[in-house]
Amino acid sequence: MKKKVLVLGAGMVAGPLVSYLARHGFHLTVTDIDLSKARAKAEGLKNVQPLRVDSGNTAGIEDLIRENDLVISLLPAQMHPRIARLCIQNRRGMVTASYVSPAMETLDRDAQSAGVILLNEIGADPGIDHLSAMRLFDQARSRGGRITSFLSCCGGLPAPQANTNPMGYKFSWSPLGVLKAAASEARYLRDGETVVVNPRDLFSHYWLVDTGDFGVFEAYPNRNSLEYIDLYGLSGISTLCRGTFRNISHCETWHALARLGFFSTEPDLEKIDCSIRRYLLRHLLKVNEKEDPKTMLMKKLGLSDSSVVLRKFQWLGLFDDRPLPRRSGTPMDILAAIMMEKMAYRSGEQDMLLMHHDITAEYPESRERITSTLMEVGERDGDSAMARTVGLPAAIAARMILEDRIRLSGVLRPLTREIYNPILDELARLGITLAEKVVSTEEIR
């Protein structure tokens, strides 16, 4: 009898995951609060049942967990620990592409006691970045090497032909997820010193990365890189940073949004009945709504009349008298809705995912610099690059668990050979590969 999989969430990255597992003969129940999304992911596939499910209905979710052999949660990250507890109680494994949160970490002992695997961080970033980095680290160690520097950046961006708006960005996954990541503190290691970046300053703390054939991009630090020193086994490393790629001038614009308070998650306004322009003036700039928004922004942010930031804000519609796209929520909710109206991919447009590792390894008599780069472009009128690079690693991991090729328990990341090697090999078979290059080698005297 074929095993059964419960997929919670049928959003923007679910398609390749569902089709991969269906092609390999598993029975899937794909759920979403919006039944049309679940139906779209099930269309044309055998053994896939779409189902409308409110993820807040704990009893209903638990019944479904009990009826299936494995759970894949593509819900918002804050919901994973609750789902994971239900999985532990019913002795069902769980796979998610999200970061391990402190709440998830506390479930490790209970999951081990129940013999349940809770595999996290198995998407693109986090996910493929872990898999590919660990393979390179272990290859260097097998030759007697020690990793002294590791810089890794990844970003989902419009493919060049689809980069058609002045913001230089479009949403290939949850807009709210992107904005929440943009409001996170960052920590990393630089030349042996810990660097802590306040969320408000995140986008003023960026650098340029030359990826070779694919061009130069801005990069800013992504969350807490320090925890990966131990997780990657890199004790004694002098520089380690995991960053996010964006197109040139992105960081200046998003730093201005942060200074305006757009990344705030409070207060939660129940009723907002005004235009976008009035919301900007009244709720964020806190000035008289009869003022000119451009003049007030120039004064608030120290911008010139010819500033590219002002021009981007005007294109985004922040000075418009049209109604807000939603009438309640936090400033972050409002910004997500405004952006989604103008920064979504249109039919036929392609996204791309760019990942780049830069590693320095020291050997007894030499030093080596290695780069590893992935550039994946979405399919025209098909799966996006983000959906493929997030969904397929999770699907492959789920298949391995269901086929008893991963026999581990606890709260895990994909950092061991028994996980990263077969997943990377299967991704390569599916056309997702990183190009590795030894950039330079020098003798150590």
Provide a compact summary of the structure.
The chain is an alpha/beta fold and 445 residues long.
Explain what you see:
This protein is α/β, with parallel strands linked by helices and 445 residues long. It folds into three domains: 4-120, 3-Layer(aba) Sandwich (Rossmann fold); 128-253 and 346-384 and 432-443, Dihydrodipicolinate Reductase, domain 2, CATH 3.30.360.10; 269-342, no CATH class. Helices cover 36% and strands 23% of the residues. The chain has helices spanning 14-23, 35-42, 58-67, 80-89, 102-105, 108-114, 128-142, 175-182, 227-231, 250-260, 276-285, 293-301, 308-316, 331-342, 385-402, 417-429; strands spanning 4-8, 27-32, 48-52, 70-73, 93-96, 117-119, 146-158, 186-190, 193-197, 207-210, 216-221, 239-246, 351-362, 366-377, 410-412, 435-443. Strands 3-2-1-4-5-6-15 form a seven-stranded parallel beta sheet, with helices on both faces. Strands 10-11-12-7-13-14-16 form a seven-stranded mixed beta sheet, with helices on one face.
Uncertain regions spanning at least 5 consecutive residues: none
Might you state the CATH topology name of the largest domain? Dihydrodipicolinate Reductase, domain 2
Oligomer: single chain
What's the β-strand tally? 16
Strand order of the largest sheet: 3-2-1-4-5-6-15
What class would the helix/strand composition place it in?
A: alpha/beta
The profile of the biggest β sheet is:
7 strands, parallel
Q: Mean pLDDT, rounded to whole units?
A: 94
CATH superfamily of the largest domain: Dihydrodipicolinate Reductase, domain 2
Shape: globular
CATH class placement of the largest domain = Alpha Beta
Radius of gyration of CA atoms, rounded to a whole number: 23 Å
- The end-to-end span amounts to 63 Å
Helical coverage, percent range: 25-40%
- In terms of DSSP E residues, the strand content is 15-25%
Number of self-contained structural domains: 3
User: Count the helices. How many?
Assistant: 16
